[in-house]
Amino acid sequence: MVGKILLPTTRIEKPVLSRCPLMYCRYIDDCCIVTSTQSEMDECFRILNQQSQYIKLTRETPRDGWLPYLNTQLMLSNGVVRVKWYRKESSKNIIVHAASAHPIAVKRAVIRNMLKTATDVCSGEIERQESLEQAFNILHNNGYQTKPRKTRKLRNASFTEERSNKLLLCLPFVSDRISAAIRKCLIRAQLHDDVVLVNIPNDNIKRQLVRNRLYDRSCVVESCTICPYGKIGDCVRTGVIYEIERSVCHARYIGETGRPLFVRVNEHLASKKRESLTTPLGKHRREAHGRNDFDVKCKILAYEAKTSARKALEAFYISARNPDMNGRNEHLAITNDLIPFLSLCEL
């Protein structure tokens, strides 16, 4: 709860506050204490560390007169507080690398925000120049080349409002070259006034590691045609591109769904049982197997929560694998202009 003091924290701080230090302030788990003497400071530090065996506090001490606090360094000189930018040693040079697979707009935002922070927290021109020099060194160490700064034209409110009224085409980011090609396709299709491309960031290591909860998964379908050919619990996954394959003739069908996968697969199996000519499996049973039934297996090809991006990935998979039971024209509208970049998708 924002603005509420947590009771355990208050219990730890109370003995120190009772000593009436000149200043005591805290931001989450970072405390700043000002006392009249060094011995009083040492005593406050000792008292804080005695409050719980599970809490161990460390303290920053001034270096060359500068005391680190959060993302700043403070110096008290002749009654005047000087402030400049600070980066902890553990994360001093860690930013998005220039060669990383991120959209150029993301890299620009990282640089812009870092330079803005480095200048805004400073108290004077000397501190500002030192902070900018440190920021430029970090950029250089991460592969960025410093170039003369170009003046940017400010976007007026009408431009922002016009952009907000457009439809969002959300696609996974592959490279800036592919994004530029997609924008050219929108222009050639005369859709640039109605549609704006939004790049979806790729999964980072953290998202890849925490998405698997093996012990929470279970198969919910009797005689499941999905989990035996993948992982337990695949049948309840949502937002997937899937492939259905006949066990004997190996004819394949590729589709996508935002619902639980077993629901969509059951619809396919029901249409096969009805021998429906308007569905891929029903039509395949009649035309290729003389109305004889057949077994199928299903596996997941990819995961994508965004509908527009999922449909685009489905079209790429159909174009790359050319499955027998898919219609020949269902993916052409999306993939025709992007065929030169198909190899980059590693499908």
Automatic annotation (TrEMBL):
Residue ranges annotated for the Helix-turn-helix domain, each copy included: 94-147
Superkingdom, taxonomy of origin: Eukaryota
Database matches in PANTHER family: REVERSE TRANSCRIPTASE, REVERSE TRANSCRIPTASE DOMAIN-CONTAINING PROTEIN
Protein's recorded name: Helix-turn-helix domain-containing protein
Stored InterPro entries: GIY-YIG_endonuc_sf (IPR035901), HTH_animal (IPR058912)
Organism, as annotated: Ancylostoma ceylanicum
Pfam family, one: HTH_animal
Coiled-coil residues: none
